[in-house]
Amino acid sequence: MKYSLLLAGMVLALISLSATPQEQSYQPLSFSLDCSGSDCPLLQGSPQTTGMRSGFVRLKPGESVGAHSTQDHEEALVILRGQGKAEVEGRAPVGFTSRMLIYIPPRSRHNVTNTGADLLEYVYVVAPIAAR
Question: Can you give the residue range of the structural domain that contains 96?
Fold first, then answer.
């Protein structure tokens, strides 16, 4: 009996470890955009999501996030306040103002800079690209 319970527990543990993202129960989430820092994570991937991440960014005039790559992810920037430019390696800079969405393709080295006189605030959403 003791061994049956142990075996049953091990089987349940293996089943839960091998669950695919479609089998997992994801819950709706909400986050405040009140953030005291300049880069505040919101969604952080698994186990919250199947791979999507997001965060809130606040840049002072002249500040930039620093060049980085999307790697095997695509990224959307939802501009809430201010103005700036997105520089994507090999492409012309894209200027933007509040209430705009900027798309950054996969495998793109890029940087975002505040070109305005006021704070730039935006939310980024990063998701893995689908396997083909």
Answer: 31-128
Task: Write a three-state SS string for 44-101.
Answer: ECCCCCCCCEEEEEEECCCCECCCEECCCEEEEEEEEECEEEEEECCCCCEEEECCEE
How far apart (Å, rounded) are the C-alpha atoms in residues 101 and 80? 9
Does residue 48 register a pLDDT over 90? no
Please list, in sequence order, all residues whose beta carbon lies within 8 angstroms of the beta carbon of residue 24, skipping any fewer than 6 positions away.
Answer: 47, 50
45 pLDDT higher than 80: no
Looking at the structure of the chain, the number of domains it has is 1
Say what the pTM is. 0.74
Upper half-sphere CA count for residue 71 (Cβ side, 13 Å): 4
* Domain annotation covers residue 16: no
What residues does 88 pair with on adjacent strands? 110
